[in-house]
Amino acid sequence: MDRVNVGLAKRYRKERRFRLFGLAAIIASLLFLVLLLGSITSKGWTAFQQTQILLDVYFDPLALDVKNLATANYASLVNHAVQVLFPQVESREDKRRLGKLISSGAAFDLQKMVINNPELIGTNQALWVVAKDEVDMFAKGYIPRNVPESERRVSDKQIAWIDQLAAAGRLKKRFNTTFFQAGDSREPELAGIRGAVMGSMFTLIVTLALAFPIGVAAAVYLEEFAPKNRWTDLIEVNVNNLAAIPSIVFGLLGLAVFLNFMNLPRSASLVGGLVLTLMTLPTIIIASRASLKSVPPSIREAALGIGASKMQTISHHILPLALPGMMTGTIIGMARALGETAPLLMIGMVAFIVDVPHSFSDPATVLPVQIYLWADSPERAFVERTSAAIMVLLFILLLMNGAAVFLRNKFERRW
Amino acid sequence: MGSGEIGSPCITGATMPPLLLVTLVFTLSALAYWQGRRRAFALMVRPAAVKMHSRPGYYGMLTALWCALPALAIVIVWQLAAEPLLTSLAMKGLTAARDHLSPDQQGLLINDLRNLVAGNATGREIDPLLQAAADRYIGMHQVSNMALAVVALATAVIAAYLVQARINPELRARNQVERAIEILLSLCSTLAVFITIGIVLSVLFESLRFFQKIPFFDFLFGLQWSPQMAMRADQAGSSGSFGAIPVLAGTFLISGIAMAIAVPLGLMSAVYLSEYAGPKSRTIIKPLLEILAGIPTVVYGFFAALIVAPWIRNAGLTFGLSVSSESALAAGLVMGIMIIPFVSSLSDDVINAVPQSLRDGSYALGATRSETIKQVILPAALPGIVGSILLAVSRAIGETMIVVMAAGLAANLTLNPLQAVTTVTVQIVTLLVGDQEFDSPKTLAAFALGMLLFVVTLVLNVIALYVVRKYREEYE
Amino acid sequence: MQKIGYTLAAASLMLASAATTTMATEGRDYISMVGSGTVYPFAAAVAEQFGKTSKFKTPKIEATGTGGGMKLFCAGAGVDTPDITNASRQMKKSEMEACEKNGVTEVVEVRVGYDGIVFANSKKAAPMQLSRKDIYLALAKQVPSPAGGDKLVANPYKTWKDVNPALPANKIEVFGPAPISGTRDAFTELVMDNGCETFPFIKAMEKSDAKQFKAVCQTLREDGGYVEAGDNYNLIVQKLETSPASMGIFGFSYLDQNGDKVQGSMIDGSIPTFENIASGKYVVSRPLFFYVKKAHVGVVPGINEYIAEFTSDRAWGKEGYLAEKGLIPAPAEERKANAEIAKSLKPMVMK
Q1: Which of B139, B171, B203 marks a domain boundary?
Q2: Same domain as B436, residue B297
Q3: Local structure of residue C250 (DSSP, 8 states)
Q4: Contact partners, residue B350, CB within 8 Å, separation at least 6
Q5: What are phi and psi of A369, to 5 degrees?
């Protein structure tokens, strides 16, 4: 007994250390998660606000006296409005720099206003227009004041003007609606995720419409009808392997078959949806099989007992009971498809596309690819927007996974 | 071959686009369904009310199937056969006059014909014979489309009528309908097999073309990877060496770093969750770890490129080490974080499956918890844990976005994690985004790399799944 | 079974709606552009402007590199091939031949302005003063033996100091474009060729064995000194930021837009500025082009109008929005001549 007691204290210490390792491992993993989400949020939350400048714009009838209102020189109206606020600025260089405080999108906003309401010609309007991305970055504090001028994107003179505007209450940060309404753009202050979100939506619709019926049908056949022989064993191994293949290989398949062989249009949501269907199909098949397996045999036998045929048993009794599990699996598969980037890079959804897609064959991009493209742009403002786009993507995924968990908890029955 | 011109564009007029035709067939079959069902009902409620074999809906379904399937088959076969047939008929007048042309030149003629038909201006002098042929083609195509519409719709209507007329109490409609549905289901399941075959074939085909240009052993064992060859004859590019060893080395280096992080953290988390944690903490912690798995890899890539890599570089500088801005360490670290949930949840399942009797026996002998885990449970669960590690390795090797954004582009044969290396997936992306010519060794090299990746991950998966499954059986 | 009936009806409705949407979009109604990554920012700016001020759809642009763009452009005349390709060098004779072989016969060449190629590094490091000879010795695969004489050896230089004792002792690491890029072609012709011609025996080779001359002067080292970064110049700028000892090769517009992070090196006595490039004092500059398939004009809507926008003074003029993005405008007469060519769609003739 003594011999046992001698080593006991050491063994207890080892026990505590081991337990602490386990706890430390979990805490470290969760810490990484917090670090990841935290750093992205800290970089991105400022993107939801946009610096805007209040201008008094005079819709000069002389400038707008053209046949086609769309091609009139709205930029001159904007420049004029800014110069009015700074009468002391005289040299041409300085006037140009003054105009650079305002985004080029302001001219388009004016264009839209005039085309919609030609009554505005000749009137004076006080309008909030979007500031250029450098002004935005400066106002949010990303461009420091105290570095030499050559290392800054805003010159000293521009800083003086910005301070003047702010003091006069003409420079404010307001909610960034452009981010949610606009498509991609080369100007960061005009870039938005709407095009990418619509593209993702179209792609996911195609994926869902194809993968869900085929996946469920395949699962039903494999689970209920297929004879248990080597061939079906092979199919099962096959499906399990497909689920674990790197997604980029599906991209290669899409490139070789859909683009090269079938000549489908590049960059269309249709092709993206097809590639993602191939990728999601195994996941849905596996999840559906699992939920079909979980329905107890007693239900099956009861149905058969009162005279139903096999098909009727499945369609009237088993499928409805297995449906929540199938839908959970499908939602999780869709969430995975939403976050996929690599296979879509291969089939050409990396073009610069400004218009928001309206049909399945319009060129489009998806949200993760948009994030990838923006991550390459060096403008500081794009870093902010990329992080914000990531936040939106994570939020959508959170909703989808939450829906899956909710469905699972509400409808799944434990036999 | 005909490049899938189902429904050639720009041919307007009194033709019916095939998609519209298919929709019409579907509508007709819906009508046939109602009709068949009504007839079955009629039979049932006649004064001599008869007991039908199946429920009325099945008769309707049978009618609908007979209406739709033959008509659709006709449409598909017609579409596939029409284009080559029409082309050859239209070219008949021409080839007689140009028999001496080589197949290449004839191919060009056919291409011109197609362009004319599609309304593309070729910009060249349009040969009047060719124009005549094109006009002939357009005419025949219109006629063919109309004929197709007539035949298909007629088949649909006639078939529906015939079947409906044959509806009687002895007709075993349900059996026939169910058999048809069963066939449809089995077709869907074979689609999964076709996907695999498709992947293997397409990747294999292009890879074989690659190996015709570059010897297989040069690819597999070569030590130089500079694929950016000259685009044109009068350009000087890289030497075009396609030795895959540096790329593979980079892949294994980064995956190795990733596993070095994921395995300890994942395994210990799994152990803690299954052995030490109470049920309440389990329900909170497990989903949180799953979140790590659900974050898209492009987000990880962004995190790695923008935050982790500069941090490591700065840390390295303070220690006086020269760290590349795209060090393998940065990419590997973030990849490891991504893989933690894979290792942890799979190991968790496996550890839970170890029978309680083993644990009880160990405690009965006086072992502490950690001793039980280290000496009884982990050895028992080892095959399953190894399986889960293999699956995680396969995931790490196939990962693309994190390495594309955080790892380097130059193939570098090194074991130093502070240097930049490139991986198989990065090279696939670099070689294929942009230049799409399927003839140059450069593009084909991407497919060869893809095949390599596919084979390696397949082997790993097969072994892992086999081990995990075998392990599950042992204790059941 | 009733449900099946409803399902059939629903399926037909769905198909009908899908049919109408795809029917409506038979035939491409947006301009498809490929080509140079250097011209890409300018083309994208024009495309955006064009999309917003006209009723046409915004063109789709992909940066594939000049060489890659030429390949796609010349692959055929059908509607599934690009309409316009951007190029940071002139189309070569072999590419023209490939075009004609595949049925693309009338190509309109429009010269849109000039661009300098800069050899840049991060502002955190000291600016470099280089000669073209230095660059050749640093980057070529084969260089004249340091011992002297007419022999060529594999490049032994590891740091810039090895090449020229006046330069800092940084490791030679240069990020630059791959052979698909027109910038690469222009760089090798303007810098490497010039640098290696300073060696008389190589210069003699130019006349005696042109192919060997090209191989010696234009083949770049593959041992890590020169890293090919595809056509993604933004990525190169980012890499320079994080590794101050490295250098990068890209067009002047990227230097201009990121002037707070990177600086251009002095080459043969002049630094890359707007004025120096426009005046020709900075020697490494070349014209930029785009090429249009005449056969597609009229088939794909909007091409004429897009070209008109690009060739308007508002875009490519001295005060235009492209100049603000770093394009060096061509002299006024050249602009006028090219605008004429663009308007009349005069096909180019290969000399």
Answers
A1: B171
A2: yes
A3: E
A4: B381, B384, B385, B387, B388, B468, B471
A5: -70, -35
Q: B179 lies in a domain? A: no
Q: How far is Cα A413 from Cα B5, in angstroms, rounded to an integer?
A: 50
Helix (H) or strand (E) holding A58: strand A49-58
Helical H segments across A86-155, by residue range: 92-99, 105-116, 133-139
B21 contacts B75 by C-beta, under 8 angstroms:
yes
CA distance B222 to chain C (A): 15
Mean pLDDT by 10 residues, chain B (476 residues): 37 57 84 85 74 82 86 84 77 64 62 64 60 78 85 87 82 86 86 80 86 84 76 62 87 93 93 88 85 90 87 84 80 93 87 87 89 88 87 91 84 82 88 66 85 89 81 58
B245 and B158 co-located in one domain: no
CB contact, 8 Å: A36 with chain B? Answer: yes
CB contact under 8 A, C48 and A378: no
In a domain, B102, yes or no: yes
List of chains touching A (3+ CB pairs within 8 A): B, C
Same domain flag for B342 and B264 = yes
Q: Tell me if residue A80 falls in helix, strand or coil.
A: helix
Q: Do A246 and B374 touch (CB under 8 A)?
A: no
Identify the CATH number of the domain in which residue B411 sits.
Answer: 1.10.3720.10
Q: What is the pTM of this model?
A: 0.84
State pLDDT tens for residues B195-240.
878 888 888 888 888 888 888 888 888 888 877 666 565 666 666 6
Partner B contacted by A284 (CB < 8 A): no
Q: Which domain holds residue B436?
A: 241-475
- B267, B412: one domain: yes
Q: Contact C243/B324, CB-based, under 8 Å? A: yes
CB contact (8 A) between residue B369 and residue A15: yes
Q: In this complex, which of A151, A185, A355 lies closest to C57 when CB atoms are compared? A: A355
- Give the DSSP letter of residue A16: H
Of the candidates C2, C26, C92, the beta carbon closest to that of B57 is on: C2
Residue B359 lies in a domain: yes
Q: Which of A336, B219, A363, A261 is nearest to A253 (CA)?
A: A261
| pLDDT over 90 (residue A276) | yes
Chain A residues in contact with C309 by the CB 8 A cut-off are none
Residue B341, domain member (yes or no): yes
A375 and B265 in contact by Cβ < 8 A?
no
Cβ-Cβ contacts under 8 Å, C64 against chain B: 434-436
Q: How many CB pairs under 8 A join A and C?
A: 70
- Sequential DSSP letters for C4-65: HHHHHHHHHHHHHHHHHHHHHT-S--S-EEEE-TTTHHHHHHHHHHHHHHSSSPPPEE----
The answer to whether A375 contacts chain B (CB < 8 Å) is: yes
Whether residue B382 sits in one domain with residue B286: yes
Asked if residue B139 and residue B262 are part of one domain, the reply reads no
User: Across the interface, which of B61, B234, B236 has its CB nearest the CB of C92?
Assistant: B234
- Give chain A positions within 8 Å (CB) of B268: 21-22, 24-26
Tell me the two tokens of residue C104: 């693309």
Nearest CA in chain C to B122: C295
- Residue of B435, B436, B439 to mutate for C, most C C-beta atoms under 10 A: B435
3-state secondary structure of C264: strand
Same domain, B164 and B253: no
The predicted structure's pLDDT at residue C340:
92
Residue A380 sits at the chain C interface (C-beta within 8 Å): no
Q: What is the ipTM of this complex?
A: 0.87
Question: Are B146 and B248 in the same domain?
Answer: no
C58/A70 touch (CB, cutoff 8 Å), yes or no:
no
Chains in touch with C (3+ beta-carbon pairs under 8 Å) read: A, B
Q: Which of B171, B196, B226 is the last residue of a domain?
A: B171
Domains of chain B: total: 2
